[in-house]
Design a protein that fits this description.
The complex is a heterodimer of chains A (283) and B (111). Chain A is α/β, with parallel strands linked by helices. Chain A has helices spanning 14-26, 73-77, 102-106, 145-156, 172-178, 195-207, 225-232, 245-252, 257-260, 262-279, and strands at 2-6, 31-35, 52-63, 83-86, 89-92, 112-127, 131-138, 162-165, 183-188, 212-219, 237-242. Chain A contains 10 helices and 11 strands. The two termini of chain A are 17 Å apart. Chain B has helices at residues 50-60, 73-81, 95-104; strands at residues 2-7, 25-30, 35-40, 65-68, 85-88, 108-109. Helix content of chain B is 27%, strand content 25%. In chain B, strand 2 and strand 3 form a beta hairpin. The longest helix of chain B is centred in the middle third of the chain and has 11 residues, at 50-60. Chain B contains 3 helices and 6 strands, in the order E-E-E-H-E-H-E-H-E. With 111 residues, chain B is of the alpha/beta class. Chain B has a 6-stranded mixed sheet, sandwiched between helices. Classes of the chains: A alpha/beta (283), B alpha/beta (111). Chain A binds chain B through residues 72, 75-76, 78-88, 91, 93, 95-96, and chain B through 43, 46, 48-53, 55-56, 59-60, 74, 77-78, 81-83. The complex binds iron/sulfur cluster (2 copies).
Chain lengths: 283, 111
C-alpha cells in the first residue's frame, strides 16, 4: 500500500498531515514514512534522532581536453543541449545533462569518460517500535529532484505500507512521487485562494490514475469554499481539521499532535483507513 | 565576418524573431560578399536545451555576431564561451533594418 500526501500549493500543512498519519498508523503496523519534498525536507523535525545516510549520485561526462579533437559529434548527439563544441574546447552545462551516457559512446576519440557526482543523500531513521523515516535530501544548487526522490522510494520499496510526503505544487518531482501510488491525500486550506492549485493537483492525480481524497486543514466555521469545491468535483473529504490554537501551539514548538494527544492519533488512524478504503474503491 | 539575425522568415524583409533559441530561421550575412543566407533552426520546436543547441549551430556556421531580442542563461553561456558577440534589438523591425542599426552601432551589446 502506497499513499501520497500532496497539496496544490505550499503551506497547507501537508507535512503535518503526513507525519501524523504515519505516526498514528505505526502504532498498529510497520510503517515507512518517506519525505519526498527533497528541496526542503522537514519531516525529520518531528522525529529527532541520528539517521544513517547513503549518498545519491548521478553520472556526468568528463572531457579530456588533450584527446578531444573538437569534432563536434558529442554536441550534435546531445538532445539536451548540455554540450557545445567551440574552437577552443567543449563547454559542458551540467544542469542540462540527463546522464544518458550517449556522448561517451559517440565520441570517436575516447575523450569522454563518466564520473559519479553526488547530488544529495537518503537518510534513514528507525523510530521504534514500528516507524521508519526515510528522507530524500537534494544538495543546495542541484536540480535533479526526481533522481533523489527515486532513490528515496527505492529505499522504501518492499515495505508493505509506505506514506510519501510530496513536494508542494504540481511539478515533475510530484509526478515522480505520485506515480504508482494507490491513493493520494490532498491537503488544502478552506480558502478560495488555494482552490485553483488544488484543482490542478486533482487533475494530476486523475491523469496518473491515482484516486484522491481531500483533507481540509485549519478550517473555520462558515469558510466552506473547499468543501463546496469537493462536492462539485465529487471528491471525498477524508478529514476536516478545524483551526485550533492548541494544535498550532503543539505544531509550532515542533511537537507531533498524534503523539501528544491520543484522540488525535485515533483520528489520523481513521484517516488512514478512509484513504485505504478509497484506494479499494470503497468510498 | 559572418553576422546572424534571428528571423521569423527567410527574407531580409521578414521581421526579427525576438527569442534566440526558438527562432525559426537564422539569416546569416557574409560581410565580405554582402550575401544573405537563411538557415533553418532544427531545434526551434524542441523541448529542452534549445539555446545552447542553437548556439552550436551558429558556431558550426562560423558566425561571430548575433543580433536577436532575447537570450536565455544557458544560450548566453554557450555563445559567450564560443566568442560570439550578442547585440540586442528591442523593437520589432525587419531583419534588414536590424542589421542596418547594428552597422550604425546603435544596438546594445549583451556583454
Ligand atoms: S550524458 Fe547525455 S545528456 Fe549528458 S551531456 Fe552526454 S549526451 Fe548530453
Ligand atoms: S565527440 Fe569527443 S572528440 Fe568530438 S568534440 Fe566531443 S569530446 Fe571532443
Amino acid at each position: 500500500m502506497e499513499i501520497a500526501v500532496a497539496s496544490g500549493k505550499g503551506g497547507t500543512g501537508k507535512s503535518f498531515v503526513a507525519a501524523n498519519i504515519g505516526y498514528a498508523i505505526s502504532r498498529e503496523r510497520e510503517t515507512v514514512l518517506v519525505d519526498c519534498d527533497v528541496e526542503e525536507p522537514n519531516l525529520h523535525l518531528f522525529f529527532p534522532g541520528i539517521p544513517s545516510s547513503v549518498p545519491v549520485t548521478t553520472r556526468l561526462p568528463v572531457i579530456d581536453e588533450d584527446s578531444c579533437t573538437l569534432c563536434g559529434k558529442c554536441a550534435s548527439f546531445c538532445r539536451y543541449g548540455a554540450l557545445t563544441v567551440t574552437q577552443s574546447g567543449v563547454l559542458f552545462l551540467k544542469d542540462l545533462c540527463h546522464s544518458c551516457g550517449g556522448c561517451e559512446i559517440v565520441c570517436p576519440s575516447g575523450a569522454i569518460s563518466e564520473e559519479e557526482s553526488v547530488i544529495g543523500r537518503v537518510d534513514t531513521l528507525r523510530i521504534p517500535p514500528h516507524l521508519t523515516l526515510i528522507s530524500g535530501i537534494l544538495n543546495v544548487g542541484e536540480i535533479k529532484s526526481p533522481t533523489v526522490i527515486k532513490a528515496a522510494r527505492e529505499a522504501a520499496s518492499g515495505s508493505p505500507l509506505v506514506i510519501y510526503d510530496a513536494a508542494p505544487g504540481v511539478t515533475c518531482p510530484v509526478v515522480e512521487t505520485l506515480s504508482g501510488c494507490d491513493v493520494c491525500i490532498l491537503v488544502t486550506e478552506p480558502t478560495p485562494f488555494g482552490l485553483h492549485d488544488l484543482d490542478l493537483a486533482v487533475q494530476l492525480a486523475a491523469l496518473l490514475g491515482v484516486p484522491s481524497g481531500v483533507v481540509v486543514n485549519r478550517s473555520t466555521p462558515g469558510a466552506d469554499e473547499a468543501l463546496r469545491f469537493c462536492e462539485r468535483h465529487e471528491l471525498p473529504v477524508l478529514l476536516d481539521i478545524p483551526f485550533d490554537r492548541e494544535i498550532a501551539r503543539i505544531h509550532n514548538r515542533g511537537g507531533l499532535l498524534s503523539q501528544v494527544d491520543t484522540a488525535w492519533a485515533d483520528t489520523f488512524r481513521d484517516l488512514f483507513y478512509r484513504a485505504e478504503a478509497l484506494s479499494e474503491g470503497g468510498l | 565576418m559572418r553576422i546572424c539575425v534571428t528571423s521569423k522568415g527567410t527574407d531580409p524583409q521578414d521581421p526579427v524573431e525576438e527569442r534566440f533559441g526558438r527562432s525559426p530561421y537564422f539569416l546569416i550575412i557574409d560581410q565580405k560578399t554582402g550575401d544573405w543566407t537563411a538557415v533553418t533552426n532544427p531545434v526551434a520546436a524542441e523541448v529542452g536545451g534549445v539555446g545552447p543547441r542553437a548556439a552550436q549551430l551558429l558556431v558550426d556556421n562560423g558566425v561571430s555576431v548575433v543580433i536577436t531580442g532575447n537570450v536565455g542563461g544557458n544560450a548566453r553561456t554557450a555563445l559567450e564561451s564560443a566568442g560570439i558577440d550578442v547585440f540586442l534589438i528591442r523593437e520589432s523591425v525587419t531583419a534588414a533594418s536590424a542589421y542596418e542599426r547594428y552597422q550604425k552601432g546603435s544596438l546594445q551589446p549583451l556583454y
